[in-house]
């Protein structure tokens, strides 16, 4: 028995930073997790309370076992996503590779979209490294329908950055150290140099955000209009430097669609 866990448990051993040291991970349906040791009969947590990786429309995940190269691939139920008029409801989140990495707070769980998704990349757009003036749209001329964004920003501790696509907004608030998409809010992981990497996957019914190289994962169900949607990126209240920005249109996983 583990207090605070209710259903759909996962128990798996993960190496720390890919090395010989490892921890056992227990995660529940709500995406919260604890790390500890396991002797085959009893699990002993290393810490009081629980940690969280996932926020938003994510529940009852499943892990693939015995995957090649020791990979731990996780896929979650996008509970709450709604698709009116479709012959199905809800959906699944993007599959991710899980890893344990050392942080200033101890080992933590990270999620990265599986590398196989790179095979869906199509037309590519980018922006050079640049300072982002307040009020200007740093992404003028960029648009997409179903796409992936990979960007690294250097932010000061007072700025608010808003990335908007099709009426949906991803907001980074450095003052409150929060990341928000729609009605979902999560902690904003920023490194010691004020840098944060964001990988954003936009589909017609969802937005998934991986922040801080995957230390925080956020899934939000949102219906976006079909067809190209202009992207905007605005800053307010502080300074931002865009160190890199790449966008790829994504092809369908269904052949011929």
Per-chain topology:
Elements: E1 10-15, E2 22-27, E3 32-38, E4 43-45, E5 51-52, E6 54-56, E7 59-63, E8 73-77, E9 96-103, E10 106-113, E11 121-127, E12 130-131, E13 143-144, E14 147-155, E15 160-165, E16 168-173, E17 178-181, E18 184-187, E19 195-202, E20 206-211, E21 216-221, E22 229-236, E23 240-250
Please outline what is shown here.
The chain is mainly β. The chain has no helices and 23 strands.
Overview of the molecule:
It is a single chain. This protein has 257 residues and is mainly beta. It has strands at residues 10-15, 22-27, 32-38, 43-45, 51-52, 54-56, 59-63, 73-77, 96-103, 106-113, 121-127, 130-131, 143-144, 147-155, 160-165, 168-173, 178-181, 184-187, 195-202, 206-211, 216-221, 229-236, 240-250. The mean pLDDT is 92.
**Structural class by SSE content:** mainly beta
Q: What share of the residues does DSSP label as strand, in percent? A: over 45%
Number of strands: 23
The major sheet is characterized as: 8 strands, mixed
- The low-confidence parts are none
Radius of gyration: 19 Å
What is the helix content? under 10%
State mean pLDDT (0 to 100 scale).
92
Number of helices: 0
* N-to-C order of helices and strands: EEEEEEEEEEEEEEEEEEEEEEE
End-to-end Cα distance, whole Å, is 47 Å
What descriptors fit this protein?
eight-stranded mixed beta sheet; mainly beta; globular; six-stranded antiparallel beta sheet; single chain; 257 residues
């Amino acid at each position: 028995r583990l207090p605070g866990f209710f259903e759909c448990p996962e128990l798996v051993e993960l190496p720390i930073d890919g090395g010989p040291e490892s921890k056992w991970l227990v995660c529940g349906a709500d995406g919260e997790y604890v790390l500890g040791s396991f002797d085959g009969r009893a699990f002993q947590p290393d810490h009081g309370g629980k940690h969280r990786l996932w926020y938003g429309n994510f529940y009852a995940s499943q892990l693939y076992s015995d995957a090649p190269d020791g990979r731990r691939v996780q896929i979650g139920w996008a509970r709450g996503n709604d698709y009116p008029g479709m012959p199905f409801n809800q959906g699944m989140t993007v599959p991710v590779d899980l890893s344990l990495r050392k942080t200033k707070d101890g080992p933590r769980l990270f999620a990265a979209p599986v590398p196989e998704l790179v095979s869906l990349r199509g037309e590519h757009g980018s922006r050079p490294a640049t300072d982002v003036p307040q009020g200007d749209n740093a992404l003028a001329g960029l648009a997409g329908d179903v796409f992936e964004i990979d960007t690294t920003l250097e932010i000061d501790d007072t700025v608010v950055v808003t990335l908007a696509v099709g009426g949906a907004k991803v907001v980074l608030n450095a003052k409150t150290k929060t990341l928000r998409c729609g009605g979902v809010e999560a902690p904003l992981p920023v490194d010691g140099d004020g840098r944060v990497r964001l990988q954003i996957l936009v589909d017609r019914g969802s937005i998934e955000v991986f922040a801080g190289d995957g230390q925080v994962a956020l899934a939000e169900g949102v219906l976006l209009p079909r067809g190209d949607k202009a992207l905007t990126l605005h800053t307010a209240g502080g300074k931002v430097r865009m160190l890199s920005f790449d966008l790829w249109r994504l092809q369908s996983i269904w052949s011929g669609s």
